[in-house]
Amino acid sequence: MTSSSATEQSGYSASGQTGLDLTRNREEKNKAGNENILVGTTGREAYENAPYSTWFHPTYQRYQPNQKIMEELQPLLENVTVKAYTGSWCLDSQRDLPRFYKVLDFARFPHAKFNVISLREDKSSLTGEEKRDSITAVPTFILLRDGKEVGRIVESAYPTIEMNMLTILKGAAK
């Protein structure tokens, strides 16, 4: 009699691959060949693990969204989805992606409506969708309402992510 574990049946591997979507949480060597970078569709779970957790967790923990802005922002997120292009190798992405997740968590925004695509150092992806979205810098956060782009935050959010989101969504509501 043979037995197989549930993890073997599901196709789960130690690298986090499920076997169902080989582009999710995929890693490749960087240009220098000395470390891995994320490429393709990336779930939060990738950032929760080393080596990415070394920058993700401290930045996420330190960031405190402005409560007053969050109260105004939260109702504007109705029918909104967000598409983010990031680089796990990019210092701006390492600063703003954890902050963006913190804002979404404070807003109780469904993570199923937040799609993160990790790019290579030359800002290319596995599928070429960065070309369709005219991505020239990372991170780029594209806010869409009912599937149509209403605005984007490119490379840095000044003064804060939540303020940029509020300004975009208030402007789109007019």
TrEMBL record:
Domain of life the protein comes from = Bacteria
Stretches the record annotates as Disordered: 1-34
Q: Where is the composition biased (Polar residues)?
A: 1-20
Cross-referenced Gene3D superfamilies: Glutaredoxin
Where are stretches of biased composition, namely Basic and acidic residues?
23-32
Q: Which InterPro entries match?
A: Thioredoxin-like_sf
Name used for this protein in its record: Thioredoxin family protein
Please give the organism: Rufibacter glacialis
